[in-house]
Amino acid sequence: MVLERIYVVRHGGDPSLTSYGIDQSKELGAHLMTLDPGVDKVYSSPFYRCLQTMSPFMELQHQRAQTGSTVTSMLPEHGIREWFGSAPFDHPEPAAPTILKSMFPSYDQGYVPVVTPSKRGETLEQLQDRIAMALRGIVEQCDADGSRAVVLCTHAAVIIMIGRILTGQFPVKVDSDDFKAYTCGLSVYARSEPVVASLARAETEDSFASRNSRRRLSHSEQGM
């Protein structure tokens, strides 16, 4: 069994979540419970606002623990964390894992991220490389353990880059209004035969395509 769906969501109104953002996250959590195929794993940016956004869904999963298969942990993937531009100084870092674990019981301290960005930020080219590497690692993990559907909770710039990488649709202008990133919005990427998504870099395409049995990902968006 291989990964069939990638559900990409943005955090709620921040920081930290406003009352509206909290309401959004509760609506999102309830909606995620209805998806088919159901969510098998949750990967989240380790920044507080993303973990907080996924908390209502994790609580609903916990309530269903006695009824069958549930998602029990949030995997803090630094490969999908916030993008900061390249700079000669250190950018903000997520809180320490021990602190996040005390706030979010489902936070998995034992998870080893696929990739971690530089504290000094990244160029757009480096961002694309980082996201492509993270996606390859996530898909590889899910294909190996039989997960059919996963949630990635992340940030606006990362969501846009995820959409471009997974579909192979790269605009001529990097600031084109192509993939949307509404707060608590949901984008669904589904594998389909047989075309390979053509990524911007040939080596990235070849590596990603081979790990995906040369399938591509189609895309749909759902506003919350």
UniProtKB/TrEMBL annotation:
Molecular function in Gene Ontology: translation initiation factor activity
Pfam families: His_Phos_1
Protein's UniProt name: Related to transcription initiation factor
Keyword Protein biosynthesis appears in the UniProt entry: yes
Keyword terms of this UniProt record: Initiation factor, Protein biosynthesis
Residue stretches spanning the membrane: none
SUPFAM superfamilies named in the record: Phosphoglycerate mutase-like
Domain of life: Eukaryota
Organism whose genome encodes this protein: Claviceps purpurea (strain 20.1) (Ergot fungus)
